[in-house]
């Protein structure tokens, strides 16, 4: 077992554990007197390995789950609540206040992203900054949406004022790999569109939400956002069973999504906004630029140790260039630097899930037993909180690494001579998020792009898969997603078209004019938000 010498700069030390017993319901920061869940980092603070104790958060119970849902329902008040009927510019003002307060927490949040989930410093900073930018972009986009709606239409003698309205109460559950960004990419558009929400942070990356509790409390009217801590089974299930959750917004895996959906008694009524598993392939064609393909496949498969839904989770390389690619690729994997998140140049970092190295080991054992090999020298070396990424070749369809979303450092490789091999595999797969296609010959590329665009929702030409820039649509086919996210699409996903219609006659038009003059409806308004 390899171990590392700990170098912990003063700047990144956590002075003391964060014991946060607070949670937010109905605008009140309540203190929990019951059981607390201890939070550990898989990063050691001492030379002899031991997880670092980071603090604790409440392990709330069913009662608090029900209270939080009640608070969200009351704030929505069947659409009559202050928040869903508030003027757009006032909701925007609340969001602007929130983002300012959030920005002040950058240093601590970035530090906690590193400690809690092991993300390296540049990526932790990027996660924070990208989220702040996402909020600003959402505000701007909502202004545009509102400006476009500030008008009347007339068709076949019917005058209409069409806007987008909220859907109701949103249960928001985010993932551990982007505990801030992905969660807020759900929560922020949900709130700004006038919905109310209950939000439960993921199992890792939970302490980093605690410094933001006050910001939420101070920025939004009571009950609009409720934040609870604890286990999904204990908290989310009872909420779903009431049938009063209007929208399930979840980024995670389909197993937990399906389990929750099944508990909702009126599934036809439940709206779903889901980001689920993927097994994005890279396809490397004979005339690909090899150095570029190697660089992008490293970034795609191993950024944040492959713990991204968009990660490249299988590579298909054409036989004609297989030997050359594998040689360069395995050397590049073994040349990567492993270290703690704040270590200069650390690309590979500790895995937050204590059982992940063991899981990857099981995938390796299974592949080896079925004729696969680890073809990089360091592949499979175990450390206390890590396993060196194995490059596995040849991978066959009966192997677990072919079938399962590894969500960690392990790279399965298949070779092909007929392009239908990867295409058929993709068509048979349960997933359909993105693909990376490497090549230069347009005669080969063009028909492939046409086919691939119908198998997934983003074809990345000569680059790794990724979600960003966040203005682009992020979605997937089959088991990979439901609904579309992006700055703009998320506003649509969390709202519904709703409008006021009236027959075009003198009496109606004068009522309309009176309403506009009195300026006492939030919905009927031609105000142009600056
Ligand atoms: O885990 C899935 C994330 O949406 C990936 O985002 O491609 O920007 O890393 P990213």
TrEMBL record:
Residues 43-495 form the Aldehyde dehydrogenase domain. SUPFAM superfamilies: ALDH-like. Belongs to the aldehyde dehydrogenase family. GO terms for molecular function: oxidoreductase activity, acting on the aldehyde or oxo group of donors, NAD or NADP as acceptor. Signal peptide: none annotated. It comes from Psychroflexus maritimus. InterPro entries: Ald_DH/histidinol_DH, Ald_DH_C, Ald_DH_CS_CYS, Ald_DH_N, Aldehyde_DH_dom, Aldehyde_DH_Superfamily. Keywords: Oxidoreductase. This is NADP-dependent glyceraldehyde-3-phosphate dehydrogenase.
